[in-house]
Amino acid sequence: MPLRLLQLTDPHLFGDPGGQLLGITTRRSFESVLALALSESPAPDALILTGDLVHDETPVGYRYLRERLNRTGIPYYCIGGNHDIQSLMMEQLGPAALVSVALRRLDGWNLIFLDSSEPGSDGGRLTETQLTQLTDLLADERAPALICLHHHPAAVGSAWIDRIGVANGASLLDLCNRHPHVKAVLFGHVHQEFSAWHGDCRLLGAPATCFQFEPRSRDFAIDEIPPGYRELMLYPDGRLTTRVVRLVEYAERPLYQAGGY
Ligand SMILES: [Fe+2]
């Protein structure tokens, strides 16, 4: 049986249950996507949350997330994004909060989590220390690997988003190409489905659980498409299949005319 992982990303939660961002009540949209994600069988082996967990820097937002995810009974892993406060995340999420470079072994696969956030910046960067640790880890650990981080390490085709990816993403992609057991790099931040190849390594972005960004847009633009999540099936021989699943419709309409958030 393959491992079944579900990626939920960029929930942008608030301490206030009614907290809205660009017209979306982000707890409500997160709950809707989570319910959809948990409605199919078999139950996932783990949930992966790739950052921008809480938007308003409140402990309450993280506590809600912990309590909600604990209720699923499914193991979960969280990394921070540019909107997260690492100290709050660690304090409230405990061992599920992964920072710097973290390895979790799951049924013959290695899940490697990287903190790509750079304090004070919407963009991301990996430190030399992280890249060195990752190089050593990939040399030692030869099982098929999935790397998870918040920011995108390669351009996704939207000029404004591509200015705030991983500044030194090319270093990460070089490493992946030199270690063919890295099967995919999984990220959030782009609020849209994205899939590409870098050599033999897949690059995968997922819809946010709140509002979506318009693909291939030069400037900030909101897309009408409903929120969703990404499913990944990881096979023992290193094969990986994946798909994006979205709500058929979502009741709230985002503020399409917004120029930013
Ligand atoms: Fe985000």
From TrEMBL:
InterPro entries: Calcineurin-like_PHP, CNP_phosphodiesterase-III, GpdQ/CpdA-like, Metallo-depent_PP-like. Residues 3-192 form the Calcineurin-like phosphoesterase domain. Transmembrane segments: none annotated. GO terms for molecular function: cyclic-nucleotide phosphodiesterase activity; metal ion binding. Keywords: Hydrolase, Iron, Metal-binding. Belongs to the cyclic nucleotide phosphodiesterase class-III family. This is Calcineurin phosphoesterase domain protein. It comes from Allochromatium vinosum (strain ATCC 17899 / DSM 180 / NBRC 103801 / NCIMB 10441 / D).
